[in-house]
Amino acid sequence: MIKKIFLITLLTFSTKAFAHGGGYLPLGDGHISNSAKSGYIFSCQTNFHGEGAFKDGDWIVGDKWNPSAKPQVKGSVLWPDHYFSIELAGNQRLIKSNDLPDHATGIFPIQYSDPAYSFDRNPNSIAKQNIVLTIPVEPKLAKQPSCLPMGMIGIALTGIAIFNGLDAQGRDAAAHEVQDSCNGHPERQGTYHYHNMSPCMKDNSGKQGKHSDLAGYALDGFGIYGQFGENGKQLSNTDLDSCHGHSHLITWNGVPQEIYHYHLTLEYPYTLGCFRGEVTNKMKSTMPAKQDGPWGAQGSSPKNPSAVLAKVAKELNVDEGDLRDAVGPPPPNFYRAAKQLGITEDKLRSTFEKARQSEKN
Q1: How much is the mean pLDDT over the chain?
Q2: Which among 139, 147, 170, 171 is placed 20 to 30 Å from 195, CA to CA?
Q3: What pLDDT score was predicted for residue 132?
C-alpha cells in the first residue's frame, strides 16, 4: 500500500514542484511531430540512427525524469579566448561567436574517473568554432511555422549554440544525456551547446519577479527569453503556442513594442518547438580541424597521431586499419572501439596512454 501511494505521488509531480526545490518533469520521448504542435518538437529529421548516452540512470522513472537526481560532468574549465559580439548593420543583426563560453565547463571528453562516465561516455572535446549569423533586427512572422533542424537553432548571449531538445536518437536530450553544471556539452565536431535552459544564462529581471531577460536569439531573428513571463509568472507549455512563444509588450531593440518572442521553460521542448519566423540562409558556421587549448586543458594531442596508432595496434596485435576505424576521429571513442575489437576498455585506454607518453618523450 505504501509503495502504491509513493508511485502515485511520484508520477504526479509537476513542473511547478520542480521549480520550487526539486521534482520530476515529463519525459519528452516520442514527442516529435511533422507539424507544429504544443509540447512537441516539429523536427525536420524524422529518422534517428545516431549514438546517445551509454545508459539511463534512476533519475528516469517511466515517463518522468528528475533533473536534480541526474549527475553532472565534473570539472571547471575556463575559456579565456571566449569571443561573442553583436552589431547592427542597417536592418540586420550580425552575431559572431567562437562558441567558447563565458562560463566554466566540465571536462570533456568525459573522464573515466567521472561518475557521469557510467551513464554517458561522450568522447568529444570542446573546440573553437567560427559562427557568423545574420538575422533581421525586426523579424516577421512566417505564414506557417517551419521545422527545426538538428544542430543549431539559435544562439545564447553566453556565446553558445542552442540546439533543439532532441539527442541523436530522437529522445529527450536533457533527460538522457549527461551535461555539465551549465547544461552544456560538445557534439562530434566540438560544438559546445545547450539543449535546454542553462543556469549559467543570466536572468536578473526574472529573479526580481519581472519578465525574464533576453537569453539569446533564434535563427529567425526572434528573441529567446528566460522562463518568466509578464509579472514574473513562471511559464509552461500551456502559456505558449506550438513553437514555444507568444506576443505581448516587451522592450525590443531598446523600444517598448508588442512582438513575438520565445521562452525557455523547465519542461520539454525546453527552448523552441518550431520556427515561427522566416529563417534565411544567411548563416555561416564553420568547424575547425584543430582545437585551441583552454586553461585547465581537456588534453593535448600527440605530435604524431599516426605513430601512436601504429604502436597501439602492434601492442594489441590488431590491424591498424581496424583500430583506426574502431576509435574513429579524435577524440577516440574507447567504449565503441573496445566492443568492436573485443578488448577491455581499460586495456585499450592504458595502451593508448602508454603510446602517447612515448611519443611526447
Answers
A1: 86
A2: 139
A3: 95
